[in-house]
Amino acid sequence: MERTRPTAPSDAPAPTPPAPTPPAPAPSAPDACFPDAAVLLDGLPRQRSGAAAVTGGSPPQPVTAVPTRRVRVPRAWRLLPTPTGTPFTFGYGAVLAAVSLGSARLDPALVHTLLQGSSTDVVHLVRTPVLVLLTSALWIAGGILSPYAITLLFVLAALERRIGGVRTAAVFLLGHVGATLATEVPTGAAVLAGHLPASSLHRLDYGVSFGVAASLGALAGLLRPWLRWPLLALFGWVLVTDLIAFTDPLTDWGHPIALLIGVATWPLVRRWHRARRPLPAR
Q1: What is the DSSP string of 261-280?
Q2: Cα–Cα distance measured from residue 275 to residue 268, given in angstroms and rounded to the nearest whole number
């Protein structure tokens, strides 16, 4: 058996060196402005920022959203009384509507008797002042669709939303009682002095117009000047027209007096309004 002699290391053939890799061709001039694809594909979420770093450009600035200002449109239903927003105006209006609709179904003679018992003339003011001052404000002269009845809903609702129900009732009663006494007390004094006949002590005097006039005067002090002065001028023109007609002297003089009573409450209602307004956020 023939023995094979191992090959010496010096006798082994030398390894062939690898062929040199030819250099990558230089990018042409149009392609020089584009970043390397490896940079763009390295980390997809930040590929453009990486490209900006390679090309030497500044990173894109974040876009700031411009806040849009919401235009507040006044809601029509806020002009009317609601059970939750203006409970006093809503409840008082419901009582007035019930009394007006109920009296329309009663016998006219009975209604006249009830009106006489609720009249705030001199005789009733001497006998039962508190009763007649309250019950006289439950009747609407001219019916439920009279101008003062409709004005009552809008004026009292607007005033109550600004100063509250209890304070609105106080302003209404102040004008109702104040204008009534300011007209009836001089009438009683004139009868005692002999300047008016004794029949002037007995008259039908009821309704909500004095309270409405005082509430409108108070509300004007809480409105902006561009709305306050035209409102007072328009209502004042109506009162002057009634005075010129002079169909009911005591009532015609009572309306301007009630309006002045409401205007006199401006410092008070403005302080109440500021107390109800929420404090501004700091």
Answers
A1: HHHHTHHHHHHHHHHHSPPP
A2: 11
Q: Is residue 4 part of a domain?
A: no
Quick one: tokens of 143? 């019916």
Name the E strands within the chain.
none
pLDDT, tens digit, for every residue of 218-231? 999 999 999 999 99
Residue 232, both tokens: 């007072």
Residue whose tokens read 């179904």: 105
Q: What is the DSSP string of 214-226?
A: HHHHHHHTTS-HH
Q: Does residue 37 belong to any structural domain of this protein?
A: no
- Asked, for residue 137, whether it belongs to a domain, the answer is yes
What digits encode the pLDDT tens for the residues 28-81? Answer: 544 555 555 544 445 445 544 444 444 455 555 655 555 555 545 456 667 889
Contact assessment for residue 77 and residue 55, using Cβ atoms and an 8 Å cutoff: no
Provide the residue count of the chain: 282
Rounded-to-integer distance, Cα 138 and Cα 102, Å = 12
Q: Which amino acid is at 141?
A: A
CA distance 248 to 116: 17
pTM of the predicted model over 0.85: no
CATH number at residue 142: 1.20.1540
Q: Helices 225-245 & 249-264, crossing angle to 10 degrees?
A: 160
In total, how many domains does the chain have?
1
Q: Is residue 228 in a domain?
A: yes
Domain of residue 231: give its range.
Answer: 81-276
CB atoms within 10 A of CB 208: 25
What is d(CA 262, CA 214) in angstroms, rounded to the nearest whole number? 4
End-to-end C-alpha distance for the chain, whole angstroms: 108
Q: What is the distance between the alpha carbons of residues 214 and 190, in angstroms, rounded to a whole number?
A: 26
Q: What is the pLDDT of residues 113-161, one digit of tens each?
A: 999 999 999 999 999 999 999 999 999 988 888 999 999 999 999 999 9
